[in-house]
Amino acid sequence: MAVRYCAALLLVLSCLFSVSYASLGDADPTYRTCVAECERNGCIGQVCFPQCNSSSSSGGPWYTQEPLYLQWQKLGCQGDCRYHCMVNREKERESLGHVPVKYHGKWPFKRVLGIQEPASVAFSVLNLAMHFHGWLSFFITLYYKLPLKQDKTAYYEYVGLWHMYGLLSMNSWFWSAVFHSRDVDITERLDYSSAIAVLGFSLILAILRTFDVRVEAARVMVSAPILAFVTTHILYINFYKLDYGWNMIVCVTMGVAQLLLWARWAAVSRHPSSWKLWVVVVAGGLAMLLEIYDFPPYEGYFDAHSIWHAITIPLTVLWWSFIRDDAEFRTSSLLKKSKTKAK
C-alpha cells in the first residue's frame, strides 16, 4: 500500500507543478525593502534597470509598453528587481551560514538565458523527446513490424487510444517546459490543464485496457462521463477559480483509480511484460521521495523536482516498451485465434 500511495502522490505532483504560496524569502524584510526601493528607484546598488523608469511600467498606449519578448521573459522592472534582490539576499544569508529559502514559492534558481529553472526545462524537454520516440516506435512496430489486416489496419484494438495518449503526453511535457521557463499566470494554467487532460485520458485508457473493453458503444459509455468531468474541471480552474485544494482532490481520485486498475491487472493477467508495469509503478513511488524530502537547488540548478523530472525519463522509455510489447502480445493472440477458427 505504501508504494501505491507514493505513486498516487506522484500523479498529483504532475497536476500541481507549481503552487505558489507565500514563502520565507519573500516575507524577509530585507528582501522586501530591496524590491520596493528597486521598483521605485530602478537600481540595486550600482546596477540599474532602465525599464523601471520607462513609461511601459505605468501602463499606457500599446506602443509605449515593453516588447512582447520582454514581457514573456519577465525581464521587466519587477522581474529583474525580484531576481537580483533574491541573488544578493542569498549571498548575504550564505555568508551568515544560513540555508537557502524559497521566494514566491520557488527556490533561488540561477537563470540561464532568461530561463527560471533550466534543469527542469531541460528534463521536461527530454521527457517530451522520450514520449515522441516511444510514440514513433509504437507506430513503426504496428505498421511495419507486425502483421496487418487485409485493409492495412492493425490487429491491436487500442491503437487510437495509445496514439491519443502519446499526443496528450507530449503536449503536457511541452507546457511543463514552458512553465518552468517562465512562471506566469497563463503558463501555470496551461501546465495544469494539460496535466489534468493527460491524467483523465490515462484513466479512461486504464479502464478500457485492463477490462479489455473492445465494443465501441461500451467505450463511449465509459469515456463520456470522464471526458465531461475533466472538461468541466479544466474550464472551472481556468475561467472561474484556480482552486488548488479541489484540483488536488481531482488528481488524487483519478491517480489512485488508475493506479489500482493497472496494479490489479498486472497481478491477475498473464501478460509476458507485466514486470515492466510493476517497475514503473515501484520506481515512480520511490522517486516520490525526492518530492517529500525537498532540498534547495545544487549550484542553483538541480533541486529535488528537477531530479524527479530526470528519473521519469527512463521510466517513460520503459513504459512505451511495455505498450509495444502489449501490441505484439495482443496481435499474436488474435492471429492464433484466427488460425484456430480457420482450421
TrEMBL record:
Write one Pfam family the protein is assigned to. Answer: Per1
Ordered alphabetically, the record's keywords are: Golgi apparatus, GPI-anchor biosynthesis, Membrane, Signal, Transmembrane, Transmembrane helix
Q: Which gene encodes it?
A: BnaA06g38370D
Principal localization? membrane
Say which domain of life the source belongs to. Answer: Eukaryota
Annotated GO molecular function terms are: hydrolase activity, acting on ester bonds
UniProt subcellular location = Endomembrane system; Golgi apparatus membrane
Q: What topology does the record note for this protein and the membrane?
A: Multi-pass membrane protein
Q: Which PROSITE patterns match?
A: PROKAR_LIPOPROTEIN (PS51257)
Q: Which GO terms describe its cellular component?
A: endoplasmic reticulum membrane; Golgi membrane
Q: Which family does it belong to?
A: Belongs to the PGAP3 family.
Which GO biological process categories is it annotated with?
GPI anchor biosynthetic process
Function text: Involved in the lipid remodeling steps of GPI-anchor maturation.
- List where the protein spans the membrane: 121-143, 155-178, 190-208, 220-239, 245-263, 275-293, 305-323
Q: What is this protein called?
A: Post-GPI attachment to proteins factor 3
User: In the record, which residues are listed under signal peptide?
Assistant: 1-22
- Supply the PANTHER family for this chain: PER1-RELATED, POST-GPI ATTACHMENT TO PROTEINS FACTOR 3
